[in-house]
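tool_call: predict_structure(chain=1)
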Amino acid sequence: MSAALAIFLFGGGERITLPPVIVMVPLSGEIAPLGEDFLRGWRMAVGDAIEYEVVDTYGSPDSVLKALALVAEAHGPSLVVGPLLSLTSLPAADFAMRNRLPILLPTATDLRLGTFGSYVFPFNYKLFIETAYIMEVMGEKVGKSGWLLLYPDMAEERAIIQWLISEKENFGITILDTVVYSETNMVYDGLAKAIVAAGPKAVFAPSGSKASALVFLSLRKRGLKCSVLGLDSWLSPDVAELVSGAMGGLYVVGPERGDFMARALAQAQKEDFEERYRKQFGSAPSEVAGRGYDAGCIAKEVCFDRPDRETVKRRLLLMGVYRGVTGDIMLSKDPKLLALYALKKGGFKKEESYGKEKGKP
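tool_result:
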């Protein structure tokens, strides 16, 4: 943290000039390793391409808001990156909207961040808009009653389910049951047997993984014919290959996948990042380090020439879907970038784009 920023935060100081990018991460206390991990990826991406200032948030909403008040009034800053926790990201998002300050939120899981406007760019916005699509469009297709929610006990999936439950009345969804499982210790046939016995009219399984794919196959083996609905992680090559032999009834929502070359370049970028990270730090990068890297790459693209805040916001929106080392990051607020994919012979095939005809599948 610069001397000017420290003086302002901890007592007095006139309006100051700061770099165009402010990175807000916890560097003190028990969660300091989270911030340090994020900065490893960030620094690998950014190098000296852009100027930035790192601010220690102490994991406290009060300290975040105090720092943001300074940033909003200072000369220079046009983009805030962070904070990292949902606890601090929610008040930060509200502040950013009120003060027209573009903010990237790379690691917070709370899907309520998706409800903010065009100055707030949570990396989980894709999950927010995909889940809304599932309730709105797929609810019309497969029916809105008797849904069973099937998900692993992991932070991101819990956040998806919590938001869906909080919004189910607004979308007219009724939930039959919820089933939580561990991806490291589960009996697929036993779990499938219990789901079949519950008699759901639709199963929402947001997480696409080897475990969820095996549960899906077991459900079909046991004769459950209702639709299974998922989010874009089901489209990953290893999961798609596992389920490719099971015809029909699996619908997945995700961003337009792009052509083969785009996906190949994204995979090459991921492999290059992981290799360089291992050489530099002696271990594989964590998800947080990967988010730091993606945030750094995005910041370089929009802040290379010290733009004003409105220009940064416009550039972020125009990026659409950024294909990063941690997956697709939806920066545009346009739901038309989403598509529906159905499992058919040979794998997943695109059915429609968001908001088009809502006929029965």
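agent: The radius of gyration is 21 Å. Proceeding to next step.
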